[in-house]
């Protein structure tokens, strides 16, 4: 272990201090290696006096304890005051309205110490509400990081000059993220290091300072990092705020004052434009990245008494080694600690050496099975026969888990023993493959096709659960068996139909996985034709299934099915299909598509 610095900025933070420092004192990381730097931004309560008391009592426990008071110039300015004094290789920037899990610092510093030198930061995962922004499930890279709790490489901060002090609060973390990337650095999200951040008293809470600060910062960042179109959209969005319903006192007057401040700061941000032309900095309305469902999915502070074994079955074939490595990497990144990895290779043994060499602290056992060429269903059944976990999930080699996938699903199944399976929403990722060896691809779109709460009757009518998104009890396999090997497609629909005959499933509205589909229309069309050709065959398989229902059950099933079909989500892809059937809309769609691509070619990003 090595010395680290911790930067803390306080403002009227008295109520948080005892719990924060208690969680810091109980860290596995030696306090004798931690240097504390605190800047109080002229609190008007007893925060500074409380900090002086804490320093008197606890300073001997730490390597050093530096406390100063400054004019309140904002969150970034306060941290810059600390960063200038810091000397260690890594500095943790953190809020005080949070508590660390005991191994948080140990995990994140260990991970950062082994990482590449071009990585500038590692954001800790927040609970009870995880930030919903997208990150790469394989590399853990992200386009921007929250500064609520983040470990920085000090040399990177020195190189860029710290936080932008003209942003008072909210948005300064996105700005420093973009500036680090503009200087060639990468950013990472490290979900295995956790802090409990109590920023919201209730879910969906609207905070005045956050609304005012984040919206004005968004416009300023567009001026520095966006193109003409992004800047114009930002101004238009800000003007639209005057039309939204009242959220707090004097809302429109405060928005107007912020708008005047934007006018004063605009020349500075426009004159300090980004340097790199090869990076496109995203602005999606008031967000900076598309987000995953589940922003207010609440993690329980009550930990599981035990962690049952989960079997992850990966089917692979046809020398898809690049895909397989990515899928397994997403398993290694899981925050759930008790996993059995079962890899079934259909027709070859090319992956044996790699799979048997896989090591991870969360994978207890690895089972590799090579079998003669027999198809997907047979591969799935071989995996099921070899799985020993209490719960089972499939991960086909071209699908990926986000880091909390198993943690969320196991927690729900362990909490509610009356359900047989649990599933979350998933991104359907239209993917343009440029090379398979080495694997090179571009992710074109991320769409959530299904946000469907469990409906047994709808399941019997149409499959709405992507195979990797559902975790089920092994006892369902023991009772109903595995895949029907006469089906080369829609085998998962047949499986879920049988498993749901007598068992309820539960839907969690949180995006925790993704599956890939072809981007090119000819490939998509061919894939759909293959699925359609098996639909009638799958329906015929359902005719032999029997379920006992009362007349009232039948009526309820009909009502439920009618409602479910009416409210099923229409995806972007679904909208394209609707447009394609209406000639006038289709012509307009193609016209604007061509205009858009011409603008992109001219650099109007």
Q: Can you put this structure into words, describing what you see?
A:
The chain is of the alpha/beta class. The chain folds into two domains: 4-197, Spore Coat Polysaccharide Biosynthesis Protein SpsA, Chain A (Alpha-Beta Complex), CATH 3.90.550.10; 310-554, Spore Coat Polysaccharide Biosynthesis Protein SpsA, Chain A. 40% of the residues lie in helices and 22% in strands. The protein has 20 helices and 17 strands. It has helices at 14-25, 47-58, 75-83, 104-113, 154-160, 172-182, 208-225, 228-240, 251-271, 321-332, 352-357, 376-386, 405-415, 456-461, 474-480, 491-499, 521-543, 551-567, 572-580, 583-601, and strands spanning 4-10, 34-40, 64-69, 90-94, 98-100, 119-127, 149-153, 186-197, 310-317, 339-346, 363-371, 391-394, 399-401, 419-436, 439-448, 470-473, 504-518. The strands form two sheets. Strands 9, 10, 11, 12, 13, 14, 15, 16 and 17 form a nine-stranded mixed beta sheet that branches. The protein has an eight-stranded mixed beta sheet with strand order 3-2-1-4-7-6-8-5. Helix 7 (208-225) packs parallel to helix 9 (251-271).
């Amino acid at each position: 272990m090595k010395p680290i610095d911790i930067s803390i900025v306080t403002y009227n933070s008295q109520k948080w201090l005892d719990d924060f420092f208690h969680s810091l004192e109980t860290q596995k990381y030696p306090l004798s290696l931690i240097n504390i730097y605190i800047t109080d931004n002229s609190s008007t309560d007893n925060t500074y006096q409380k900090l002086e008391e804490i320093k008197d009592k606890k300073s001997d426990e730490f390597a050093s304890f530096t406390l100063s008071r400054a004019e309140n110039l904002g969150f970034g300015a306060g941290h810059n005051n600390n960063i200038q004094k810091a000397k260690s290789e890594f500095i943790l920037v953190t809020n005080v309205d949070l508590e660390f899990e005991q191994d948080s610092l140990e995990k994140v510093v260990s991970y950062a110490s082994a990482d590449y030198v071009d990585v500038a930061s590692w954001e800790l995962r927040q609970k009870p509400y995880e930030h919903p922004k997208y990150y790469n499930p394989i590399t853990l890279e992200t386009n921007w990081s929250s500064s609520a709790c983040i470990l920085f490489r000090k040399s990177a901060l020195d190189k860029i000059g710290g936080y932008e002090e003209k942003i008072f609060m909210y948005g300064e973390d996105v700005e420093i993220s973009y500036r680090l990337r503009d200087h060639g650095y990468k950013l990472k999200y490290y979900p295995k290091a956790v802090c409990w951040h109590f920023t919201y008293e209730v879910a969906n809470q609207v905070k005045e300072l956050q609304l005012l600060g984040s919206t004005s910062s968004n416009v300023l960042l567009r001026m520095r990092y966006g193109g003409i179109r992004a800047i114009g959209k930002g101004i238009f969005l800000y003007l639209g705020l005057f039309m939204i319903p009242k959220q707090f006192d004097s809302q429109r007057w405060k928005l107007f004052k912020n708008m005047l401040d934007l006018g004063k700061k605009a020349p500075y941000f426009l004159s300090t434009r980004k340097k790199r032309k090869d990076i496109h900095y995203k602005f999606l309305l008031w967000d900076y990245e598309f987000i995953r469902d589940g922003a207010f999915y609440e993690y329980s502070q009550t930990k599981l008494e035990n962690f049952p074994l989960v079997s992850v079955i990966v089917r692979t074939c046809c020398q898809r080694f690049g895909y397989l490595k990515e899928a397994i990497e997403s398993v290694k990144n899981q925050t759930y600690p008790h996993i059995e990895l079962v890899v079934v290779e259909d027709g070859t043994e090319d992956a044996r050496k790699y799979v048997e060499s896989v090591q991870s602290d969360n994978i207890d056992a690895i089972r590799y099975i090579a079998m003669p060429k027999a198809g997907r269903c047979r591969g799935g059944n071989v995996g099921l026969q070899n799985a020993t976990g209490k719960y089972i999930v499939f991960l086909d080699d071209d699908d990926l888990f986000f880091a909390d996938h198993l943690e969320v699903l196991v927690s729900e199944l362990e909490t509610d023993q009356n359900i047989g399976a649990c599933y979350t929403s998933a991104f359907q990722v239209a993917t343009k493959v440029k090379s398979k060896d080495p694997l090179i691809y571009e992710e074109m779109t991320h769409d959530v096709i299904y946000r469907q709460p469990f409906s047994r009757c709808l399941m019997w009518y149409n499959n709405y659960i992507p195979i990797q998104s559902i975790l089920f009890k092994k006892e369902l396999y023991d009772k109903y068996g595995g895949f029907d090997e006469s089906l080369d497609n829609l085998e998962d629909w047949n499986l879920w139909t049988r498993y749901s005959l007598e068992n309820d499933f539960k839907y969690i509205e949180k995006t925790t996985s993704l599956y890939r589909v072809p981007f090119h229309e000819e490939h998509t069309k061919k894939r759909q034709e293959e699925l359609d050709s098996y639909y009638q065959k799958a329906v015929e398989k359902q005719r032999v299934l029997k379920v006992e229902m009362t007349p009232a059950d039948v009526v309820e099933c009909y009502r439920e099915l009618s409602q479910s079909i009416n409210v099923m989500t229409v995806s972007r892809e679904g909208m394209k299909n609707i447009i394609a059937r209406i000639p006038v809309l289709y012509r307009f769609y193609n016209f604007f598509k061509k205009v858009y691509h011409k603008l992109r070619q001219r650099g109007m990003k």
